[in-house]
Amino acid sequence: MAINLRDKAYNAIKDKILTGRIGHSDFLNEGELMKELDVSRTPIREALSRLEQEGLVSVLPKKGVLVKPLTVSDISQGFEVRTIIEPYIIETYLKFIDKHELLKIKALSQKLIIAPPDPTKFAKLDDHFHRVIASACPNVFIKTMLGKVFDQNIRVRIYSEKNLWERHIEAAKEHIELIDYILDNKVNDAQKAMVHHLITSKEIQMMALRDKQISAW
Fold first, then answer.
1. Helix or strand or coil: residue 27?
2. Which of 46, 67, 88 represents a domain boundary (last residue)?
3. In terms of domains, do 121 and 169 share one?
4. How many degrees, rounded to 5, is the angle at CA 116 between CA 106 and CA 201?
5. pLDDT tens readout for residues 120-131
6. What is the C-alpha separation between 91 and 34, in angstroms, rounded?
C-alpha cells in the first residue's frame, strides 16, 4: 500500500510540474500536497526525493523544495543530445519502431491540426511520439537519458509555446512526414527530417524562452 501511495504522489506531482500547473521556480508545500492528494507526509517526501533524483526539484535546507527553473543552457544541451541520438535510433533500430503506434499518432496529429488550439494535448502527443521512437532502442542508458530530456521538453514546450499554436501545427505536420518516412523504410529521409524537426523546435523554443527572460544558466 505504501508503494502505491508513493507512486500516486510521484505521478501527480510530476504531472503538475511537467504540464506547468506548478510553475518553475515555485516552492512546493508538503502540507498542501498531503491534503490535495490525500496521503501522509512519508509518500510525499519519497515522491519528492525521486523527483530530485530526476532533476525536476531541488531540496534547499531551511527553505523547502523548489521546482528547478528552466534554463537556456539546459534546454540547449537537451536538444544537442536529442539531435545526436534520435536520428541514430532511426538509423540503427528503425525496424523495431512500433509502426501500429505511429499510425495512431499520425491520425491524432491530423485531428490536432484542424482542432481548436490545445497546447497541453499537443505537448503530450509530441512527447509520446518521441518516446515511441526512443523505445525501439534496447540500450537502457540511452533510454534513461532521453527520458529525462523528454520530461524537460514537456515543461519547455508548454511554458514557451502557449501562444505559438502555429508552431504546434507545423510540428504536427513534421511528425506526419517523419512517420511516413519510417513506415516506408526511408531511413535517410527520416533521419534528415528528424534533425530538421529538432533544430527548428530548438530555435523556436529558445527564442520564446529568451523573450520570457529565463536564466541563461
1. strand
2. 67
3. yes
4. 55
5. 788 889 999 999
6. 46
